Every structure is written in C-alpha cells, then in structure tokens.
Amino acid sequence: MSTGFFEGLSKVTYKGADGDGDLSFRHYNPDEVVMGKRMEDHLRFAVAYWHSFAWEGGDPFGGQTFERPWHPQDDMGRAKMKADVAFEMFEILGQPYYCWHDADIRPEQGSYAENLSTLNEITDYMGEKQEATGTKLLWGTANMFSHRRWMSGASTNPDPDVFAYAAATVKGCMDATHKLSGENYVLWGGREGYETLLNTDLNQELDHMGRFLNMVVDYKHKIGFKGTILVEPKPQEPSKHQYDYDAATCIGFLRKYGLENEVKLNLEQGHAILAGHSFEHELAVAGAEGMLGSIDMNRNDYQSGWDTDQFPNNVPEVALAYYQVLKAGGFTTGGTNFDAKLRRQSLDPVDLIAGHVGGMDVCARGLKAAAAMLEDGGMEDALKDRYAGWETPEAQAMLNSDLETISNRVLSDNLNPEPRSGRQERLENYINKFV
C-alpha cells in the first residue's frame, strides 16, 4: 500500500544504456550473468536506513534541512511511518537488502528497558514487512556514539556502568538481527578512541574492547547466529584517534585478542580516504588476510576534511575496488551497503531514489569492468611476470636460509642486480581499456 511519500514513482527497471531519464537502470541488470553469477548476487545491494530515513539534513555547521512526515522521530507512530516509507522505497528500487542501527528505527526512550521494548516492537513490525516484500536484512548494529552517554566511548568507557549498558545494547541488537534473519552483525567503534592522552589509559581501553568483542562472539554462538561478525575501521571523526584506525590496525587487534578466525571487516570508501588510503588498498589488505566481509560504498568530497558520505560516481575507482573484491572470492554473507546520503539541498523524495539508482549503476559498471579485467588476465599476468624470479628453486631456498649463507652467495656469484621497470604507466593504460 502506498504511503504517498513517493507519489507518482513506479518501480525502477533496467532499460539499458539508452534508457531515458535518471530513474531507470542503464547498467544494473540484476539478472545479467557476470563471471558465472547473477549481477544481483555479486553486488548484494543494501540501503542504509540511517542516511536515507533517519538523517535530517544537518552538517557540522548547520541543522535540519529535510522535513519528513516522520520528524521528529520521537514516538512509535512515527517510527512505523518511517518503516512504511522505507519498505516502499525498497520495493521501488528492488535492491535485496537493507541495514540499520537500533537508534535509526526506534525512538530514544532514555532507559535501556524502554529502548529494548521499542526495538522489539519495531523489529516485529519490520519482520512482517520483510516477509511481505522479500527485502532482507544484510546487517544490524547498535548506535553507541550519538547519545551523550557514549561521549567517552562504549566498551572503552572509563565508567563500568557504561560498559554494562553497551553490552546490554549489543545483546538486544544481536537478538533483533537474529530474529530478522540478518546475515551479519556489525560493530562500528564510533567513539572507541580518545580525544587526549592526558586522561586515557590505552592498554586498559584496548583490553576492554578486546574482551567486549570476545563476549559478542561468544553470544553469537550461544544463540546460534550463523551470520558473520564484522568490525568497521575508521581513523578519526568524531574521536581524534580511533582504535579501529584502518584495515591493518583492525587485523592486528583481532589477532592480539584471538578473534582472527571469528571476525571480518566491513570496509568503507570514505573511511579509507580519511585514513590516507585508497579503498582499493583497504580491500587488498583485508583480502590478503582472508578478512574481507562486506563494504559500505560511498565517497568523500576530496576538498572537504570530513566524512561526507556521498553516493559513488567514479567508475574507475569503483572498478578497482570490485577488482579486489572479486580477487578475494567475492561476497559470501556481505554485500554493498550504500552508506551514502543526499546533499542537504536535495530535498525531494525523488532525489532519494535518483541517488541510489545512480550509485547502483556506477557499481554495476565497476563490477563489469573488474570482471572483464580478471577474465582478460592482463593484470595478473603482469604480477606473475614481475615476481617470476621467486618461482625458482634457488629463490625459494633463500627464504629458508640465513643471512650468512645468502651473503656468501652474493659474494661468490658477484651479484649486482639491475633494477627492472615497474611498468606503472602501461598498467594504468591497460586499466583504461576497461573503464
């Protein structure tokens, strides 16, 4: 039943490259087979509930610009109205998944018991909508950064009562995610970091964060949750320094606390940029360690110093990202979540549809380019050629040798190697054939 919010808008369909207007897919054809798999099953698109429906259009320097019929988001009636509109949009877009934080879908009541009650009520309501529409939950998570109680962190908070509140909050969100057959559960640190070392005990906070995550994993197994536990790196903002800085930092943290076989990474384009990396880099690091779980697809404005969360529009960047995803074996329980929001001047409901349509098309083009590169094999051949010397028995034996033996060989063979070209420009030209 129509809510009237998207009045006059019908289901978005694939019309090909010659499709007219900005509300049809030119490149995203869910049933197109790419590398033996349907495009929908490769990309596993999800809509972020928070940016699409909970965000009110504010930025660091100004407040609300969006006036939605469910604002202010302070009671269950409006929460259900918001869910009605959300699932109507899911049907218009036809993406298979969505994602939420608890604070996106239920009003803040103050006490844990009241918040848990409204969370259970709204997720029962959303479960009925999932059943009716076929839209599934890619992942759920807890917002432990917005409310003032989290100003000094959640699991890393110096107050043990806040740690306890965080543990109870995550339990409730995991139960709700499990009830809705969610395929993953995400923990984003938010304020798990510090603003100054003058009042911070790093060792204690990291140990508490490691213990907290072990509790999460234990509870996953206790309730029989079959999804993947994911952590999401971010270097800064809002904290001066966050403990989950980037993929490499998270992987080291997981190994330190014995979680490397239990937890994978949810990586975001915008967070990679804030860490001084490319998205391609973060995906390659996670893929090399077998810890790539899911992605938040967006982009930052390269002239702004904060996490602007815009819809993706750079096909070459997206192609290189999906190249790493495909090299790592593709998504299993994870997917492509649009952690992206409208610009605060984009007020109309149709803008929300257009933003997702454009992002889905960019990802589809990127995926097809990445698949074509992999099937062509030029990049992999170039890598194999560059490291070919290591395939010889002598080179392999050197890895099991010692410095003295290697030094003697260099002297006896009078080794004086000449550098070889890295051929970067030729590889960049090669990529441009596909994007």
Report a brief summary of the structure.
Its EC number is 5.3.1.5. With 435 residues, the protein is α/β, with parallel strands linked by helices. It has 16 helices and twelve strands.
Protein architecture, described:
Keywords: Carbohydrate metabolism, Cytoplasm, Isomerase, Magnesium, Metal-binding, Xylose metabolism. The active site is at 101, 104. It catalyses: alpha-D-xylose = alpha-D-xylulofuranose. Mg(2+) 1 binds at residues 232, 268, 296, 339. It is found in: Cytoplasm. By secondary structure, this protein is an alpha/beta fold. It has 2 domains: 33-376, Divalent-metal-dependent TIM barrel enzymes (TIM Barrel); 394-432, no CATH class. Helices cover 46% and strands 11% of the residues. It has helices spanning 39-43, 49-54, 76-93, 102-105, 112-133, 160-179, 202-223, 247-256, 269-274, 279-288, 315-327, 349-376, 378-386, 393-399, 403-412, 424-432, and strands at 33-34, 37-38, 45-48, 97-101, 136-141, 184-188, 193-194, 228-232, 241-242, 263-268, 292-296, 336-338. The chain has an 8-stranded parallel barrel with strand order 3-4-5-6-8-10-11-12, surrounded by 5 helices. Helix 3 packs parallel to helix 5, helix 5 (112-133) runs parallel beside helix 6 and helix 11 (315-327) crosses helix 12. It is globular. The two termini are 41 Å apart. The model has no long low-confidence stretch (mean pLDDT 96).
SSE arrangement:
Layout lengths: L32 E2 L2 E2 H5 L1 E4 H6 L21 H18 L3 E5 H4 L6 H22 L2 E6 L18 H20 L4 E5 L4 E2 L7 H22 L4 E5 L8 E2 L4 H10 L6 E6 H6 L4 H10 L3 E5 L18 H13 L8 E3 L10 H28 L1 H9 L6 H7 L3 H10 L11 H9 L3
EC number: 5.3.1.5
Keywords: Carbohydrate metabolism, Cytoplasm, Isomerase, Magnesium, Metal-binding, Xylose metabolism
Cofactor: Mg(2+)
